[in-house]
Structure formats: C-alpha cells, structure tokens
Amino acid sequence: MTDYDSVSADVEDEEEIPADHPRYQDLLTRHRIERGVEKGITHLQGMHAEGRGSAFDYLLGEETIPSADAAERAAAAHLLLADRPVLSINGNVAALVPGEMAELADATGADLEVNLFNRTPERIEAIADHLRDHGADDVKGLEADARIPNLDHQRAKVDADGIYAADVVLVPLEDGDRAEALDEMDKTEIVIDLNPLSRSPQVADVPIVDNIIRAVPNMTDHARELADADEATLRAIIEDFDRERALEDAEKRIRSGDL
C-alpha cells in the first residue's frame, strides 16, 4: 500500500509521484511549475496563478465535467476550420503541457507563439527551446514585430504573421486584459481557465473550464477524431455548443461542492 502522507510535492522527477495518489494531478502541476521556475521558463508569479487554479480544480472534483468536454470538442472544430489558428504559450503553459501543445498544433495545423507578460529575451528563448525539445517544429513570438491594440504591457508584443494575423486564438490560463483586447480585434477566442467568473472565459467564444493538463490532450483527441470531418459537420459542432450553458454548469459545479 502506498503511504500517501510520505509523498512530497518537492520530488526530483514527476515519475516519483504515484499515479494513484488522490491528489496526483495537483502534485504533478506543482512539480512542473517548480521545475519551470528553476529552468527560467516560468515566472515566480506563475506559482501564485497555479495555486488559484488548483483551488478551483479541487472544487470541480479534479475532473473534466461534460460541459468542458463539449467545449473542448467545439474548440477542436474551430481550430480545424480556421485559416490561421494560433496557440498562445506563456510560462505556465510551457511548463505544464509543452509536448501536449506541440501535439495539438500538429493535430490542427496551428502555430505556436510565445507571449509573455514578464517578457525578456532570455525567457522567450528558453521557452522556445523547451517547446522544441518537446516536439514543436516551429515557434513564433521571437520577432514581436506587431502589437495588439489597446494593451500597454509586454503581452501586446506579438508576431505579425502569428497572433496578430490569426483568426482563431487559443489563450490558455489567466489573461483577462489580452483576452478582451483580442475580442476587440474580432478574433475567435478559445480560453482555458478554471475560474468561470474571470474575464478571460467571460469574453471567450469557447470558454473551457478545465485543468489545462486535461483540456489540451482532450482537444487533441477530438481534433484527431474530427480530422476527416467535412465543414458542415464541424460547423454543426460549433453551433451546438452553448457557451453560456458551459459557464453556468461550471459555476454550479464549483458552488455546489458536490465532489
């Protein structure tokens, strides 16, 4: 029998965390964020953001609820129909799901672009290298030759042939001001955020209230399943998705405490 009380969050390798631990996903995400900070990929502030997300995930029962799965399926359909889909990467995303984001990009034909609030050339290069080490063929965000209007901070810096020109953008994790700015640019936004009341999912066309370590692989699975679907089928999936219902279901689950 596993002595769960002896398992420390400060492990050297994530394989040391027993998969049957009742808080496995939480320990896994904490470990990856810590290692991200050590590698210069994740900013220290990212640890606080992860803590907030962990609390909401606990209230969700640390599982993908049906409305989140429907959102992930709709997101996959959007990415497959897009002319210029882009998956945005920040430090936490790079630490938590680097290979999974590369797989989603491959399954949907999307570009990967690094976009940071605490932006330095060193962090941009470190994240780009980290993504390449995990299977990414090409990574945008290094040029930063365009700006998102109505943003005064570093996240305004984007590639002209990346996020700036995209028709569909995946914006994972907390990023309310940029989500609002991209909405004003009339882009289709897919947001992954464990807090259904935060600004990002509130403005998203497809709000995914789920842990990113579950959401991204689920989106990839849906994209592969729908790879041969015709345009009418993909558009029907998008039209059937009810964003308001998804947000309401997530909030109800969180408030009910029915774990």
Notable traits:
259 residues, alpha/beta, Rossmann fold, two-stranded antiparallel sheet, 11 helices, 8 strands, 11% strand, disordered N terminus
Radius of gyration of CA atoms, rounded to a whole number = 18 Å
Assembly type of the shown chains? Answer: single chain
CATH topology: Rossmann fold
As a percent range, the share of helical residues equals 40-55%
Run of helices and strands:
HHHEHHEHEEEEHEHEHHH
CATH superfamily descriptor: Phosphopantoate/pantothenate synthetase
* Tally of strands: 8
Low-confidence stretches: 1-9
CATH architecture: 3-Layer(aba) Sandwich
* Outline type: globular
Supply the number of helical segments.
Answer: 11
Structural class: alpha/beta
Q: Average pLDDT, to the nearest integer?
A: 86
What's the story with the biggest beta sheet? 6 strands, parallel
Sheet with the most strands: spatial strand order = 3-2-1-6-7-8
The CATH class turns out to be Alpha Beta
Distance between the termini: 24 Å
> What count of structural domains?
1
Percent of sequence in beta strands: 5-15%
